[in-house]
Amino acid sequence: MKKTTKFALSGLAAGIAFAAFTTTAQAQEEWTMTSTWPENLDLIKIDQHWVELVNKLAGEELQINFRAGGTLMPGTEVFDATETGSIEAAGDWPGYWAGLNPAFSPLATTTSLFNGVDYLNWIQQWGGRELYEEIYGQFNMVYLPYGITNNESGFMGRTPIESIADLEGKRLRLSGRDQGRVLEELGGSQVTLAGGEVYQAIERGVIDAGEFSTPGVDFNAGFSEVADYWATPGWHQSASVFGVMINKDAWDALSEETQETLRIAADATMAWSLAWSERQSTEATQKFIDAGVTINQFSEEDLARIQEVTNEVILRGACESPDHAKVYQSMIAYLEHYATWRDVSAPYNMSRVMDNLPSLEEIEACL
């Protein structure tokens, strides 16, 4: 009798253990994720870094099958695919969706405002993360910012641009709604091209000059082969943010523990991306010099004028969209608050010392 009971209990325990194992195995989610970036553009490495971390840290519950941009669908379609749940996730640059909501523009980059550390501070401690969640949440998505690159290269082409006076009448490849507006005020005209088309556009003279990303990304895209001149700094994108769009239903299907793991992987990737990009940019700048590319830097007077125009564009855009105003209000409030410590710690501070910011009061009046 005792042996029978013991055997029955052992069998019951084994059955429970097997059922638990089976349930765990069946509970593993498998996601399909793509990106706006094709394999030949280095920005895809930020997406890949996050996916690798998630698959290591959350592998028992979630595995992400990552496909490079353009292999599943055109990069322009990943937003709709993630929103509808055709795929579970996609890496992106928020500025591509500014036509859907102007707030996506400053969530992606700023003209002559934030640097990379500012975005890091703002996202982590000054309310930025919540604004990404709010804006993407309007489209049935959760958003995890996981990439930051600092100042972009600037304009590269076969025509020298030595000052903002040289922008007059120039056709320049430029991303971003606010960026295009500033350029137009300075006398140039914005040409919108996919990143993979910039090389040929410079080579064939379709544009006078173009930009895509940081020096590291631009060099590996071959720009030194077609550009003789480089106008810097890249005031049009003083820093950039990248992240992952996640379908809300797919996110909700995860446990809270796994959701937190994805957030931790995003924060880790964000720190890695900034250092990776700066190292890449440093090495690539020397490669551009070695290739014979002439570097021209905008003067302090030119940059001050760009700041004035930027402030005007920000204020104009704020009153066109409450969401746009809300994001910039948060950004300017951060810069004013951070100045309490930032300015007294110069020259060892981590952000720009600025004495000409867009008016916070005028932005708030648009809310």
Summarize this entry quickly.
This protein is α/β, with parallel strands linked by helices and 367 residues long. The chain is built from 14 helices and eleven strands.
Which structural class matches the secondary elements?
A: alpha/beta
Tally of helical segments: 14
Overall average residue pLDDT = 92
Shape: globular
Low-confidence stretches: 1-26
Determine Rg (CA atoms, Å).
24 Å
Separation, N- and C-terminal Cα atoms: 79 Å
Largest sheet: 6 strands, mixed
Please estimate the helix content. Answer: 40-55%
The multimeric state of the shown protein is single chain
Residues in β-strands, percent: 5-15%
The counted number of beta strands is 11
Widest beta sheet: strand line-up = 7-6-8-5-9-11
Summarize the helix and strand pattern as letters: HEHEHEHHHEEEHEHEHEEHHEHHH
Keywords: Signal
Signal peptide: 1-27
Organism: Vreelandella neptunia
Protein name: TRAP transporter substrate-binding protein DctP
